[in-house]
């Protein structure tokens, strides 16, 4: 169901249910949560999330599992998905969704919980729950408008329409389109930031995320606090010294 490996400085998490387009059964969601707990203890600099096979990153929830459940089971299912994806969102290291094909419903919500998204040119994305008389339940109504704005998110959610990779890039839903293998492209994307100190990366991510939930004047206070913390790290001292000495810094994540 879940394959977790290391690729040099990175962890690679792969959904391995290609015969079902890597659909998210509740068992897979639980396995995903366990894998994220494991990654949190690894000495890696980024996590790459992808799907097995040529067709799909993740085609969404396992629809058959959603039918005929009592009310509290329905709520518990949504809370399980939200809590699992929150683990991904809260990882101390950045994460990249390598979207190799379809990313629909819960699959797109999984990608939205990652820090960045890299997509194959053939990839297609959407939140089609409205077509089933439902709405997104694993964070889509909350993360999508924060990423692409209220109007575009409202259109995608209320129409359930599919967005191709080129449009996804244009509206900011993905960060890059891959040339060739999408996992290799995600690794190359990670190479662009993984050499920096992890404390500074984590503080910067925290500051940006908190900006979405606070007024500007409060956000500036948060930025001042977090930037001050960054100054107190050994990496900051090394970075400043390296700049003055005109050499490449040797960050040690401290």
If you had to describe this structure to a student in words, what would you say it looks like?
By secondary structure, the chain is α/β, with parallel strands linked by helices. It has two domains: 2-191, 2-enoyl-CoA Hydratase, Chain A, domain 1; 198-244, Lyase 2-enoyl-coa Hydratase, Chain  A, domain 2, CATH 1.10.12. Helix content is 47%, strand content 16%. The chain is built from eleven helices and ten strands. The chain has helices at residues 26-39, 63-66, 71-89, 106-112, 140-148, 150-159, 165-170, 182-191, 198-211, 216-231, 234-244, and strands at residues 2-7, 10-15, 46-51, 56-58, 95-99, 102-104, 116-119, 124-126, 163-164, 176-177. Strands 1-2-3-5-7-10 form a six-stranded mixed beta sheet, with helices on both faces. Strands 4-6-8-9 form a four-stranded mixed beta sheet. A hairpin with a 2-residue loop joins strand 1 (2-7) and strand 2. Helix 4 crosses helix 5 (140-148). The longest helix is centred in the first third of the chain and has 19 residues, at 71-89. It is globular, with a radius of gyration of 19 Å. The protein starts with a strand and ends in a 10-residue tail after the last helix. 39% of the residues are buried. The mean pLDDT is 94.
